[in-house]
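Incident log, entry 3
Record: PDZ domain-containing protein (527 residues)
Problem: checksum mismatch between cached and fresh output.
Input:
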Amino acid sequence: MRKLSRISLAAVLVLLTISAAAYGPHIATAAGQIYSRLQVLEDIMEIIDRHYVDDVDIDELFDNATRGVLENLDPHSNYFSAEEYAALQEQYRGDYAGIGVSFEMFDGVLTVLDALEGGPSQALGLRPGDKIVEVEGQSAIGWTVEEVYDHVRGPAGTRVNVTVIRPGVEELLQYTITRGNVEIAAISIVAMLNEEVGYIRLNTFSQKTADQVEKALQDLQVRGMKRLVLDLRGNGGGLMSQALQLTDKFLDGGKVIVETRGRTAVANASEQTTDRDTHPELPMAVLVNRGSASASEIVSGALQDWDRALIVGETTFGKALVQNQFRFRDGSALFLTIARYYTPSGRLIQREYVGDEYLEPVAVDDRRSEDAPDWTGPQDDDRPMYTTGAGRTVYGGGGIHPDIEIEPTRVYGIAALMYRAPLRLFFRYGVQYAAANAAEIPANFDDFNDHFVVTDEMVEDFIDFVRSDEIREPLEENNVPLTDEALDPALDDIRIYLKSDIAAAVWGGDTGREVLLRYDDQVMKTI
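Fresh output:
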């Protein structure tokens, strides 16, 4: 089927006007010229439907037309089908109904990466590395991710029967799991980096983020925290309301957090702190990188402008476009940019773009491949300068520029490839190692993190594992070399990732990421 990728702006606005006509004058504002173009568009669609050489899906043509016009506006105005919008709302809600596992498809087998804390699967004893091979008596081998969701997710309170293969256990395991509402944690790590420094890794801004952070802060204070590292690296944003509530915890009342500026009165606003601050004097640093965007930039920009926190790491993404949501009858939605964000000092967070394309590449990993390109944005001399409340100079020009720049840890490319999806070879090895060597692994994660050592024999065993016939084929498909010359420079990184993913295989993925903190240059230099 031919796709109608772009039509005129006016024509597609007509399309949106028709779709939203029942929603009142705040959406249906088009005048006579738009209606005349509407007739042309209707005629075109009717001619295509009747005369085109192949059968066509008119709904898909309209969807493509809508997306085509939005490409001419900015990178973040977007149209979502009903299914896409429902999935997005689930992400922002911070929960869903299901069995409570994160998973990956390894060689066509549904493999548990983590049984989520407080979820139905964790309560029954499912573990990282478990392979779900049947669901309701039907083979799950070779399922797509969509098929997994269709069969495993369902209304809370309903049951699903699964058959599990567990490494190190000969017999098949049978579980009847009662689906429940599973909370998607906004926080992945809460830890003490030393006797005084607490650490919170915040992944997203969903509906429960501010409450989850408050709980984490109280937990860390009980454990002796006197200073905080708030890690927003890779946090692409989420709900602005949660960014405001989070910032409000650290600032006194009556201070501007962020301003929005647009063409209409409703788009111009100033959001200020309340008197509900709970940690106004806690010394803190905020870690950011190129993956920190939107709500993350609101938080870091406000804390920097009010001299409340030290911002450390790399210049952030630079996403400061405010979207308003327009819902349509069929459940689809338009997210349309109506304003831009500005920090309290007046800095525009948004970086340059043309249409839906940004002008600079972005790299977002905390542990970046040694052959990954650096982002070369404007230098300080080329950036507009602004002044904080205490008189310090801060820089505009797109994104939040850190007070202290620290490069991310560099990782040899082959180790990074083996660590990440779709390969995840360290995790797969970690599952096997944990099953075969349980007696050698400390029972307590803190003891493991402090004392467990990856030996030369373990490294050699891992290399034999990745060179095995079972693993070699996917490596070759992903152009991962297995020669000694390729592997030798990566041996230190291999040791680190082995320890990380052995922890993940025993205690879950967040503990694996906590292991990596000790080898993270940006974290270690911050404290």
